Structures
1.
Amino acid sequence: MQPLFSHSSGAGPLAVFVHGFPMDHRLWDQVVAHLGGLKRCLAVDLPGFGASSMDGADSIDETADRLAAVIASLDEPADIVGLSMGGYVQLALVERHPELIRSLVLMDTRSESDSDEGRAGRHALIDRVGESGVEPVADSMAEALPAADAAPWVRRKIRQMARDSSPAAVQAALRAMAERPDRTGILGSIAVPTLVVVGSEDALTPPDGARRMADAIPGSRFVQIDGAGHVPPLERPSEVVGALRDFWTVSA
Ligand code: MLT
């Protein structure tokens, strides 16, 4: 199994950033740029995205195992921040490798598996990528993820990250997300400090679901980022940095 590619900056306790679909480590650029004095920030590329190879990308669980190998190689548990698909990977890590986690930030994500309709939509998209490549996914995600009034460069950046992904990676991630189990049942057993973050305008994983998830995690904190859609690290990076700093200060 090839190691996951990761981009390291800063010094201090280890913080690992896990991107959403169909993006890569660049999702976190503006966030990690302001945290280098506080943490050693490692922004990973999930299998097939950015600079990571496709090897071992068949499921969210396998992806979590590959992330675990990165963290284990650094010999310290990590503060882990994940967005959406990155959150699915975090919850798999909670189940499979809890000893590697110092704290969790679950951002614009959910614990539930896909509905039948959602699963069918993913399979239709897999076929579409097979026929037309990643372009339709890049366009629809750039449209759907941010809030309606997001700056044009936010949509451009999402489109760029999606276009830089291989069709095989996009299809494998869609398949892995469609097949992921419901992990709502483990929320009550999360024993590390946890922050749930959501954009007030997130249409994919809306605030009421994020609030429910926070309520199910013992002692967790909840922060809503006003004006952001599904990608607060791009849409409201300084608010995300503030939320992380506050959380890490009280949870350390
Ligand atoms: C993401 O941002 O990672 C995706 O929206 C997750 C999903 O499609 O479930």
2.
Amino acid sequence: MRKQGTQYRCANCGHTEPKWLGRCPECGFWNTFKEQNAPAGSFKAEIKGESYSLPILSIDPASGTRTSSGSAEFDRVLGGGFMRGSAVLLGGEPGIGKSTFLLQICAKIETKGRVLYVSGEESPAQIRMRADRLDALKPNLEVLCSSDLDRIMSVFESVRPVFIVIDSIQTVYTPEAGAVPGTANQIKYCTQEMTEWAKTHDAIIVFVAHVTKEGLIAGPKAAEHIVDAVLAFEQAEGDLRAMRASKNRFGSTDELGLYRMGQTGLSEITDPSGVLLVRREGEVPSGVAVAIVHEGSRVLLVEIQALTVPAKAGFTRVYSDRIDASRVARVAAVIEKQTSLRLSDQDLYVNVAGGVRLTEPGIDLALAAALYSARTGQALPARAALAGELSLAGELRPVRQMGKRARAARSLGLSVILGPAEGPYGEAEEEKAGAGRDRSQAWIKTSSLKAAIIELWRPR
Ligand code: TYD
Ligand code: MG
């Protein structure tokens, strides 16, 4: 009979099986299974006899508690802090600030226990110099410069950290997983090993992953299935950095964290509603419209800029990298159908001031107004702000948090606030928005794109 707690792991891909097999069902390699004892304390070792389930009431709820990262923005993106025993992958282009950011997080979290920063890319002296600048010289912060998995794992055992950073997962290497470092197999195997250690020791582990210009976490794609959350740092305009989750087992994926890179590392932007707004005196140029965006739990006011030029080729193109190009094409088609304004012979350029990528459906109306304004040359009224989703039939669909959006827009001095007729304009919602007796003035309610265009360009 098989020994209790024994498992077999494929040396090529890290796949585990309860019994030895000649060929790995995962990667198809032969004779790669090696016997391994499941680490004590892991749930696999706790399995007694044939009973594989646990009464839900017997599970310790404390195993699901969260630990604050020390950064409110980061906590929000994570869904309320780190889950104990969780693994996170942080991707981003080289030079965007991943190492800087995580060293800062290490310095904040070290009050909770020993913290280990593993670097395969920099020397101890380089890390010390950076830590100096970031005010990260803390007694509980340990540094290890190594890319050898075995060595890293043995330091885990001796240091017993509560928080670990692996910078980066592409540099970690073990001869057990093939001859070449940085391959998908290496990444998968090493991520699996280290994640398992973290889970069985209730530690939090963060892996840094370099991504290519195309935005894909190329090699580390293999690691995405192993970790609990996949986050990415994106470059917005200048020193602005945006952080988003593309996978999150313990929270939503629509939160947006905003940071600024400065002399002493990354600092949080705690009230971001106006940071992306372009302040203009007097007349507004044609082709721009302000969207009231609700990303995650916060409102941002963002200027959408559009330009239309007659297409030179026999076909037209959409140039838009901050808003999905297919959304731009769809909104342009709705404008053409509803207003008879011809856009199908134009090349469309769309940009978002501040460089943040927008995914929320509520930007449709502002995008439509910017395109309409660009094509007709008629500017929107000053201090206008818009929110609403467009259906293919040209109706304005309701979007969430109308009261909160109106409040944010008004507090930034915007007064012509246009939105859908239907919506969560509930009594309570508007009361909270402080609309009170002038409730009708909170939003100019329009039911269709056509009505919104008439409202925006009526003489006032
Ligand atoms: P880094 O964290 O090394 O990026 P990554 O790990 O994602 O490759 O950040 C590198 C850039 O950040 C580098 O151009 C210098 C800049 N930087 C600052 O502007 N301020 C700082 O305090 C630090 C430490 C770096
Ligand atoms: Mg780095």
